[in-house]
């Protein structure tokens, strides 16, 4: 992508705050590298399991000073609490109620899709096995949700 | 039940019902070897008599008619009569009076010479009848009870011999021998009635060199219906001289009522002229018969014939009747016993048939598989099963025969309420006729399922005594009924039919249907239960596949992802990232391999055959020491077995797997602290033994305790492993019909346990119905 004719222009200067809830270290690394590869300015907070996610939402323990992210990337198969429970917990919380949540999972099962939308996920993405597709997906999702999408106003 | 037999021979122009209508109870005549006096019950005066009475009494006719009995006779019999008259009142009687016959009579007064008679008195409802039979006299030979042969001994001997007889025919042989010895008749036979009405001679004593009647069959009309009815009332009939002309009653009609005089219970009653002619044609000079009655029905008769006249005294006749009655009781018992034995034997085959059918889930195969037993059960030659439009061959079906017409036949025919249909002569009704098949017994299990037994044709040779087609005819100038003249053996061959179906055969058909019905219902329930179990297994499978597909896809994403980055890094010369890329790729492949290995292991577990026995735990732990040492490699974890232990009833390799997993888990997750200890326990629990592994690590938060047995479920991904361990443990528990679970208070360690149920004392092994691993 050439720097002279970048259609996104100054929008790219926006810093996108991601919350990545992903238990697989390798997958987390892939996503990070894809973001870097596609030159998305970002701040990424990584959580490894549902327990940490709950604590983050509740601003408990090490996450007392946490900030509400611009967008959440949520895996479904997590230890301790699974992604659906985390999503439910977020939608029940005052601060996280309106935060865009993008489910990013290996599962294409109908029941998972149904449940995710039931709990008001904003979008459901299936991790592609193909590298080029993975790359594009991370780029597109980060540009869409991070650059184009206007986050909800912060709740006082 | 519906049944059809072979066509019965036609009886010429005259038929059975003509004989049946003859009024043999009011013949108006008596046999002339004795005489009959009919008394007015109020006065005991003679109101009618047989014509020969004056002659036999040695008096003139006018001296007898109207005379009071005491002027004619004396003796104990007279006392019995006069007592009756003198004490009697005029109230109407409901039942005829009974007398203890025979009674002693002698003539009185004006008799030419002194005569003694056996008197038989009975009350026929209108009059008192005295029948007088002269006793011994110079010109009269009367067979009497032999002085040197006490009646009591005779009875005892006859009963003992009958008891010792092998079967019903044996008992009949005893009968004919004893009656022959007692009465002196030339020929004594037992004549047995068949269900169809004809009779057969089944035992015989006959003079040396004479014709034998044994095995001959006599048409039903030879002993017409009304005769059989009388034979049930009076059990002995004697015709001492077939050719003697009977003596008429005078007056012919009853003087007070004007009706014919009822001689039903008179021993001297003259027999039907047709019967006389019948006996004469047969060359018989004297005849006596004794009824054999079983359960109130005429089962057969003892028939005695003599070449010329032959008289036996009343006492002898009573002795024969008594012997007949006593032996009938034994006959009845033996007939019942033989029937019960035959029934029990058939039922044994029914059990065998049902047992063999139970093993096979598919119903048609079950029935054809059981067809050898069904073949014996129904006593048939071959068996087919008709299901819908198809006819399936069973035991002993002939090759080359097309049994399809059987299917059409049984579907079309009515099986009645009991669901059984039998025919003896299939070839007459079946189009096209089936080669070699003549008899059919069909059991309807359901409107489109039949079990059919087939019998092959049997040419039946029946030897009739004379041509049964001309047993009775209308002939002669007066066009009256005449019995056949020839009793020469007349052989009949019945073709196109099979052996007749016995009541037992038909009954077993009905029992087969009942047994099969309950069997079908049970089979249905089993199928429903099986279907439900399959449904739940199918759901389990779907869940499993979902889990697995995810857990294989995940490392693939990693693998492909880092392969892509590797290409990029190499293309753009970013060598410092290359190592990381390769490491991730390698790790993902290792991960996939591990997942596949574990899956294989789990599937093998699912298919594993387990052999359970009592496990010596201390011994097993000792043998596992090297494994534990390897698992605890870099740590100083202590692994101890707490004694005393209880031996679980389980499959040893399974217990090994459980211990390896649980101890391995404990070491991995719970032994990061100093002085960590893992304790293995085996304690008695309700209904079984609980084997557990306890650690003193951080414990498991309550909200995760249920989940962790799920396949590939991990609580801590920082520790290597695929998460299949606990799922295997749960599977082992399921295979043993037990349960698995964890007890943990966060901060105070965790105890993972498996419950192995005790063996079932009745079956010797544990029920293998899977149960949920959740406690």
Topology diagram in text:
The complex is a heterodimer of chains A (156) and B (775).
Chain A: E1 16-21, H1 25-37, E2 42-47, H2 50-57, E3 71-74, H3 83-92, E4 101-105, H4 110-118, E5 123-126, H5 131-148
Parallel strand pairs in A: 1-2, 1-3, 3-4, 4-5
Helix pairs in contact in A: 1-5, 2-3
Chain B: E1 2-4, H1 16-21, E2 29-30, E3 35-39, E4 46-50, H2 53-57, H3 61-64, E5 73-74, H4 76-87, E6 103-107, E7 116-123, E8 128-134, E9 142-143, H5 151-164, H6 168-183, E10 187-193, E11 199-205, E12 217-218, H7 225-233, E13 236-239, E14 247-250, H8 273-281, E15 286-294, E16 297-306, E17 311-312, H9 314-358, H10 363-369, H11 371-378, E18 382-387, E19 390-393, H12 404-412, E20 420-423, H13 426-429, E21 439-446, E22 449-455, E23 460-465, E24 472-475, E25 480-483, E26 489-494, H14 503-571, H15 575-607, E27 612-614, H16 617-631, E28 638-641, E29 649-651, H17 652-670, E30 677-685, E31 688-695, H18 702-705, H19 725-735, E32 739-744, E33 750-757
Parallel strand pairs in B: 1-20, 9-17, 28-30
Antiparallel strand pairs in B: 2-14, 3-4, 3-8, 4-14, 5-6, 6-7, 7-8, 10-11, 10-16, 11-12, 13-15, 15-16, 18-19, 18-22, 20-21, 21-22, 23-26, 24-25, 27-29, 30-31, 31-33, 32-33
Helix pairs in contact in B: 5-6, 5-9, 6-9, 9-10, 9-11, 9-14, 14-15, 15-19, 16-17, 17-19
- Tally of DSSP β-strands of chain A: 5
> How many E-type strands of chain B?
33
Q: If you compute it from the alpha carbons, what radius of gyration of chain B comes out, rounded to the nearest whole angstrom?
A: 48 Å
Of all chain pairs, the largest interface belongs to: A-B, 26 and 27 residues
**Beta-strand percentage range of chain B:** 15-25%
Series of secondary-structure elements of chain A, N-terminal to C-terminal: EHEHEHEHEH
Helix content of chain B: 25-40%
Average pLDDT score of chain B: 81
Strand content of chain A: 15-25%
Averaging pLDDT over every residue of chain A, what do you get?
Answer: 89
Q: Structural class, judged by helices and strands of chain A? A: alpha/beta
How does the major sheet of chain A shape up? 5 strands, parallel
| Alpha-carbon distance between the two ends of chain A | 39 Å
């Amino acid at each position: 992508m050439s720097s002279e004719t970048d259609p996104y222009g100054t929008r790219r200067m926006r810093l996108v705050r991601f919350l990545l809830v992903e238990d697989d270290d390798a997958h987390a690394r892939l996503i990070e590298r894809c973001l870097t590869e596609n030159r998305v300015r970002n701040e990424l907070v990584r959580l490894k399991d549902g327990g940490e996610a709950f604590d983050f939402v509740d601003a408990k323990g090490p996450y007392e000073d946490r900030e509400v992210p611009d967008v959440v990337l949520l895996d479904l198969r997590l230890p301790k609490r699974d992604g659906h429970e985390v999503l439910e917990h977020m939608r029940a919380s005052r601060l996280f109620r309106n935060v865009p949540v993008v489910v990013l999972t290996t599962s294409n099962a109908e029941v998972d899709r149904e449940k995710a939308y039931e709990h008001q996920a904003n979008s459901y993405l299936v991790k592609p096995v193909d590298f080029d597709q993975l790359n594009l997906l991370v780029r597109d999702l980060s540009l869409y949700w991070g650059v184009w999408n206007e986050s909800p106003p912060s709740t006082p | 039940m519906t049944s059809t037999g072979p066509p019965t021979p036609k009886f010429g122009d005259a038929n059975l019902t003509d004989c049946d209508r003859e009024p043999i109870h009011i013949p108006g005549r008596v046999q002339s070897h004795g005489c009959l006096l009919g008394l007015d019950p109020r006065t005991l005066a003679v109101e009618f008599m047989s014509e020969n009475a004056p002659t036999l009494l040695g008096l003139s006719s006018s001296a007898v008619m109207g005379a009071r009995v005491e002027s004619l006779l004396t003796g104990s019999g007279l006392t019995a009569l006069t007592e009756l008259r003198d004490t009697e009142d005029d109230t109407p009687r409901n039942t005829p009076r009974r007398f203890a016959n025979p009674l002693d009579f002698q003539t009185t007064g004006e008799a030419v010479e002194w005569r003694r008679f056996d008197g038989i008195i009975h009350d026929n409802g209108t009059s008192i009848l005295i029948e007088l039979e002269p006793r011994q006299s110079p010109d009269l030979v009367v067979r009497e009870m032999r002085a040197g042969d006490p009646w009591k001994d005779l009875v005892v001997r006859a009963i003992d011999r009958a008891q010792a007889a092998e079967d019903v025919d044996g008992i009949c042989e005893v009968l004919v021998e004893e009656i022959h010895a007692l009465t002196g008749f030339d020929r004594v036979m037992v004549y047995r009635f068949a269900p169809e009405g004809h009779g057969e001679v089944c035992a015989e004593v006959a003079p040396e060199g004479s014709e034998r009647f044994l095995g001959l069959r006599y048409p039903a009309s030879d002993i017409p219906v009304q005769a059989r009815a009388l034979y049930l009332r009076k059990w002995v009939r004697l015709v001492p001289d077939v050719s003697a002309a009977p003596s008429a009653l005078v007056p012919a009609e009853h003087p007070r009522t004007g009706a014919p005089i009822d001689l039903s219970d008179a021993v001297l009653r003259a027999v039907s002229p047709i019967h006389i002619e019948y006996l004469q044609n047969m060359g018989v000079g004297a005849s006596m018969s004794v009824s054999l009655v079983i359960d109130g029905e005429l089962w057969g008769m003892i028939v005695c014939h003599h070449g010329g006249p032959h008289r036996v005294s009343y006492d002898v006749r009573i002795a024969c009747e008594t012997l007949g009655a006593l032996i009938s009781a034994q006959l009845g018992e033996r007939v019942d016993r033989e029937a019960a034995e035959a029934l029990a034997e058939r039922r044994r085959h029914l059990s065998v048939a049902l047992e063999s059918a139970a093993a096979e889930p598919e119903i048609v195969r079950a029935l054809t598989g059981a067809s050898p037993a069904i073949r014996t059960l129904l006593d048939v030659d071959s068996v087919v099963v008709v299901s819908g439009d198809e006819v399936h061959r069973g035991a002993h079906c002939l090759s080359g025969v097309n049994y399809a017409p059987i299917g059409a036949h049984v579907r079309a025919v009515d099986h009645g309420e009991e669901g059984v249909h039998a025919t003896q002569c299939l070839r007459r009704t079946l189009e096209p006729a089936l080669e070699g098949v003549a008899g059919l017994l069909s059991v309807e299990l359901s409107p489109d399922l039949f079990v059919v037994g087939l019998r092959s044709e049997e040419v039946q040779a029946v030897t009739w005594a004379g041509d049964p087609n001309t047993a009775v005819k209308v002939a002669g100038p007066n066009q009256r009924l005449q019995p056949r003249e020839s009793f020469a053996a007349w052989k009949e061959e019945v073709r196109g039919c099979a052996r007749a179906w016995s009541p037992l055969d038909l009954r077993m058909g009905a029992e087969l249907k009942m047994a099969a019905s309950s069997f079908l219902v049970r089979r249905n329930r089993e199928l429903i239960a099986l279907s439900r179990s399959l449904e739940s297994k199918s759901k389990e499978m779907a869940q499993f596949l979902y889990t697995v597909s995810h857990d294989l896809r995940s490392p693939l994403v990693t693998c492909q992802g880092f392969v892509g980055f590797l290409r990029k890094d190499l293309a753009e010369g970013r060598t410092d990232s290359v190592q990381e890329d390769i490491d991730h790729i390698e790790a993902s492949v290792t991960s996939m391999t591990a997942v596949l290995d574990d899956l294989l292991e789990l599937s093998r577990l699912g298919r594993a055959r387990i052999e359970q026995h009592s496990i010596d735990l201390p011994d097993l732990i000792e043998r596992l020491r090297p494994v534990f040492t390897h698992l605890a490699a870099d740590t100083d974890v202590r692994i101890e077995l707490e004694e005393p232990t209880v031996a679980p009833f389980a499959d040893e390799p399974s217990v090994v797997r459980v211990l390896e997993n649980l101890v391995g888990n404990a070491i991995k997750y719970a032994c990061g602290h100093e002085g960590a200890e893992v304790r293995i326990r085996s304690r008695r629990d309700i209904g079984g033994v609980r084997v557990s592994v306890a650690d003193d690590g951080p414990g498991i938060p309550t909200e995760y305790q249920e989940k962790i047995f799920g396949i590939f479920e991990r609580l801590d991904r920082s520790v290597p492993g695929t998460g299949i361990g606990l799922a295997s443990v749960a599977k082992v528990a399921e295979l043993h019909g037990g349960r698995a679970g964890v007890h943990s208070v966060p901060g105070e360690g965790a105890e993972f346990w498996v419950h192995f149920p005790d063996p079932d004392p009745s079956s010797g092994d544990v029920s293998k119905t899977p149960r949920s691993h959740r406690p």
